[in-house]
Amino acid sequence: MRRPVRGAARLVSGAGLTAALLLPTAVPAHAAPPPGMPAADGKGQQLPAMPSAFDPEADDVTCTPASKEKAEKHDWSRQRLDLDRLRVHGTGAGVTVALIDTGVATGAAGLDGRVSARGAAADDCVGHGTFLAGLIAGTGGASPRLAGVAPGAKILALRGTDERGTASADLVVRALREATEARAGVIAVAVALPRRDAALTRAVAEARRAGAVVVAAATPDPPSRGGTDDIPSRTYWPAGEPGVLSVADMLPGGTRPKGALPTGGIDLAAPGAGVVSGGPRGKGHYLGGGASVATAYTAGAAAVVRAAHPDDSADAVTRRLTATAYPADIPQLDPYAAVTTVLGDAAASTGADERAADPVTVRDTASADRATGRAGLLVLVGSAAVLAVLWAGFAFSRARARGWRPAQAGPAARE
């Protein structure tokens, strides 16, 4: 009669031991970031993708159609940047952000009446520039929770590309000079060029001397076809120019997206995958990503800082953005801290041109830290429960073996 009891006890103990071994690994697994760029915005919202450019070799192209889908939820990037709290302290009112990309549709939802465009920049066939403008200064239209970082700012739309989205140094130089003449407080260059150009260097220097904060994409957006594994690390321009804030994209977990072009000299990382914004036509939403998206978010943050600290120079604004960033291999943009932190002399003396050397990944941050803390608590509680099960199984088997008689205390008790 004892063999079945011992077998049952071993079964209970074995199950408890298995649970004890699996629990520490099973709980934190839910906190791990999803690998690669998500197919949606991280909350299951399936939206059409916003291209950054069209195929330059195609015989004919059709402009990006109006999206028929609308985002129903707050996307991860706005939560990560804590925009609801940021807007209590500023919206970028009174600041003009010059956006150099594919142009901006002046009548787009959430941007109507707040965008001025030079020449062909009012025609955005690709739609990418309008998408970025929504991240910088859009009101969200009928979806206010999808507003940009600085909904009180103005947008000056400038073309740094042709009508298909292919960038050129000549167009970027012309756009930089127009932004400088317009006295834009922030200049966002969403394109990245593979070669340094003397005229481009001069145009950037002129913009900085005029007092503009220049923010630029650390890399071009990844090509739509082919991999990036064989592409060597290199510096792109104008992000590599002295004094320019070079910005890279990151995933919800803090790492750079799989397939992101390698580069060094990055100053900040900002959300750049599965991000929701509007387009030039219709009232629907799209998903976008890349260093250009991260640049738009950073430019919006710079506008809010400029409005909140109007006496700060452009270099001081740049230092504020980098000094208050979340510490990681590549510091992560924190607009709320940039606006509200009182900087000391140590932070003020930090050079904006100091750049991280050859970063590969960005450390996980707040959400993962909270998840890890919860996982640790669950592990402790679960381990205690497992030990209780093991002890109960052992006590049960011993009691059955004694025929439910009380345990003998020692030799004196047996006499």
TrEMBL record:
Membrane spanning stretches: 375-396
Gene source species: Streptomyces heilongjiangensis
InterPro entries assigned: Peptidase_S8/S53_dom, Peptidase_S8/S53_dom_sf, Peptidase_S8_subtilisin-like, Peptidase_S8_subtilisin-rel
Chain positions covered by the region annotation Disordered: 32-75
Signal peptide coordinates: 1-31
Lineage: Bacteria, Bacillati, Actinomycetota, Actinomycetes, Kitasatosporales
UniProt keyword Membrane, yes or no: yes
A Pfam family that the UniProt record links to this protein: Peptidase_S8
Protein name, per record: S8 family serine peptidase
Keyword Transmembrane (UniProt): yes
